[in-house]
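User: Quick sanity check before I run a bigger batch. Here is a single chain. Can you write out its predicted 3D structure?
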Amino acid sequence: MSDKRETRDVEIDSVEIREDGRAMIAGHAAVFDKLSEDLGGFREKIAPGAFQRSIDKAPKRDIYALWQHQSDKPLGRAGNGTLRLIEDKRGLAVEIDPPATSWGMDALASVKRGDTKHFSFGFEVLKDQWDFTDPKNVIRTLQDVRLIEVSPVTFPAYPQTSAEARATVAEINKRNGESADALSRAKDSAQARASLEARVRVAEIELS
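Assistant: Done. Predicted structure follows.
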């Protein structure tokens, strides 16, 4: 896996059954402007429009739907229309027409019963923005990403972040550590000055 690749999870909204009897896995693989849990020093949200470039380029740079992130178990492909992606007001809406294979049937049955209720999507960041206003609540906004694949998954894994994101967090922690050290040194210095002043006052009293 590329060191630039990241993954995130979201609960699947629903499974729809078409009138012609063919089943379709449908839901949102991402939700806009919703803050994530702590990703290891920062929280994250996705800006509207973050997936649009990938969707527009899907016929040339394909996007896949996979079962449990397994590349040998494809469920759909944007290039042939068995995976459909669109940005709506809520986020990245996904529709998958699973194949009549063992894993395709497994995916449908598992999602329909509620055993599998999460989407996970793999992507690479093309453009993001970091808000360091509050060092204790750093916010990363994904503005443009290259969507690689979406997967129904049983167990939502802890989100994987890229080397660039981890490096940024390391820099945040370094800055915070330096600030804490500086504050501690300033506090110790102030306490030392106060102690010295107190001893001087005692000496002055004893001499008077």
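Residues 162-208 form one domain.

User: Great, the batch can go ahead then.
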